[in-house]
Amino acid sequence: MVNTRRNAMEDNLNNDPPPPPPLTVEQLLAT
To answer: By three-state DSSP, how is residue 21 classified?
Structure first.
């Protein structure tokens, strides 16, 4: 049943909003 749990976890990750992108060099220099 590991595959079923893995698929469920992947579905949850896909449903979650993507994390904010890391700061770019331009953003770091602008601060």
So the answer is: coil
Is the pTM for the entire model greater than 0.70?
no
Report the alpha-carbon distance of residue 21 to residue 28 in Å, rounded. Answer: 13
Domain boundaries, the chain: 1-31
Amino acid residing at 27 = Q
- Report H helices in 1-31: 2-15, 25-30
Task: State the chain's mean pLDDT as an integer.
Answer: 68
